[in-house]
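Review this chain:
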Amino acid sequence: MLPRERVIDVIRHKKPDRVPLYGWVFSNLKEPIEARYGSVAAFEDKFEFDYAHLFGGPSCYTEEDLDQLRKASGEITPEVLLDLPLKDPNNMDAYKDVVDGIRHHKEQCGRFVYLQTPGLFEACNFCFGIENHLAYLLLYEDTLREVYQRQAEWNRAFAMNGLDLGVDMIHVSDDWGSQHSLLFSPDVWRRMIRPYHKITCDAVRSRGGYLSLHCDGNFRAVLDDVIELGYQVVHPFQESAGMDLVEFRDKYRDRLTVMGGLCIQTTLGFGKLDFLEKEIRRILGMFRDGGMLYCTSHFVQDHCSMDELDFAFTTASHLARA
């Protein structure tokens, strides 16, 4: 079975021949990985990763534009941001890294590929700052809706370009959770966030693309809404923030797939190899029959040694096949 087929089987709620594997390793560990394995690609090949997370494409705004806006206005409010044009999402030259990633991972290695795309709340945090943004949800609701509508249409164009290039799944990144709950009330989320996510979700699903959500923290209060929007995969379903994988397995596995299982906040990178092995065994044992794309919960941090990283993925690779 090709790696891509294995991932698709899990997303379609079939029992895989083994649990698919991946890890977010290149951002903080590129140099030490290259020193030990020769390249990140060699590391991915050694552990037979089944899927790949692609980054690239145009940005919504440049830091220079935002800095100039802050100097001119003092504070970027929703009304001020509407005066700043978004960059062209159809600048295809900006997708070169995506094209190269598809060629390597999908065409040469047979992997399933997914593309990081902006959400709404997270994208606007770069403009407003998270504290201001939370206040704006209440202070400037009507104007913020205009900001979100414009951002959602940009996000849809970005996602459509990714599907046109050949990615298998659109991965929408939008952090809504704290360690214990949503950053705002479920009612605010349903009124202000959900309608604009629906624009991209509907477009991706209408094209037959797979759809995943990255959301750190605890978003349990809107999990059913996430499924209704059309998301098929969620990452990372963070146990360290109170997201219960036992509940997920028992109640949601026939409707949703988790990408995650290897927590970088509590498990990987702390030198506790016995605990690390125990946790890998526990999670893979829970999802041996499907429901999980095994992966790190976020980028592995630079305090993780190469010996521990190798131990983690050697253990996971063995247990995924057991």
